[in-house]
């Protein structure tokens, strides 16, 4: 076989597999691995696999925190699997709060769309960084650091956030302490809160122990 034809034949064998290196749309029918979900076969993908409409509708804010987070992580938007990014929508009513929490696997950037949020984070040297965010403002929250957002205005606040991971993770401090079965005596000993206060908070957030 002439060298050119041999080269073209080999190239034709490689081309069907080339697109699989461009992306890894999550196959949610398979369990996730430490590096993300297994990839859906490229031959089964359509443009709909790279399209998500879930952030166009406000989340349900009729809850104790008067706020909602609508995620577009790998489980909701499989196309971000393996891309090193994801998104979410924040809806916060006046007086509402996204409580102190961390994202252990990703940095966060927040873009204000409507309303006002008081936002901030605490670094590992216990320095506190606070800012009042209005429409068009952006704030970043480094990976793993405690941070929060509170609606400090008179109208519902809307913000979109992006993360440097398709699965940034989430741990809300108050839920971890008072919404779990963490023994009350250990919480009292590690936080210096009274037994009555720990029981009150567990009663509000549904914890036991």
From TrEMBL:
Residues 53-199 form the Cupin type-1 domain. InterPro entries: Cupin_1, Germin, RmlC-like_jellyroll, RmlC_Cupin_sf. Residues 1-20 form the signal peptide. GO terms for molecular function: manganese ion binding. Mn(2+) binds at residues 101, 103, 108, 147. Pfam families: Cupin_1. This is Germin-like protein. Keywords: Apoplast, Disulfide bond, Manganese, Metal-binding, Secreted, Signal. SUPFAM superfamilies: RmlC-like cupins (SSF51182). It is found in: Secreted, Extracellular space, Apoplast. One of its GO terms (cellular component) is extracellular matrix. Oxalate binds at residues 103, 108. Its main location: secreted. Belongs to the germin family.
């Amino acid at each position: 076989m002439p060298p050119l034809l041999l080269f073209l034949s080999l190239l034709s064998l490689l081309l069907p597999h080339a697109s699989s290196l461009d992306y890894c749309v999550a196959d949610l029918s398979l369990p996730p691995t430490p590096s993300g979900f297994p990839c859906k076969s490229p031959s089964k993908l359509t443009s709909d696999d790279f399209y998500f409409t879930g952030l166009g509708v406000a989340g349900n804010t009729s809850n104790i925190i008067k706020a909602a987070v609508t995620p577009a992580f790998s489980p909701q938007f499989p196309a971000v699997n393996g891309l090193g990014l994801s998104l979410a929508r924040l809806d916060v009513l006046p007086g509402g709060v996204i409580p102190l929490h961390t994202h252990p696997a990703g940095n966060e950037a927040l873009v204000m769309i409507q309303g006002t949020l008081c936002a901030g984070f605490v670094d590992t040297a216990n320095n506190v960084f606070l800012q009042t965010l209005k429409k068009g403002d952006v704030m970043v929250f480094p990976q793993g650091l405690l941070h929060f957002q509170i609606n400090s205005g008179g109208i519902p606040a809307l913000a979109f956030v992006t993360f440097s991971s398709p699965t940034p993770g989430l741990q809300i401090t108050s839920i971890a302490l008072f919404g779990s079965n963490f023994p009350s005596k250990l919480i009292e000993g590690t936080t210096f809160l009274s037994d009555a206060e720990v029981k009150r908070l567990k009663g509000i957030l549904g914890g036991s122990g």
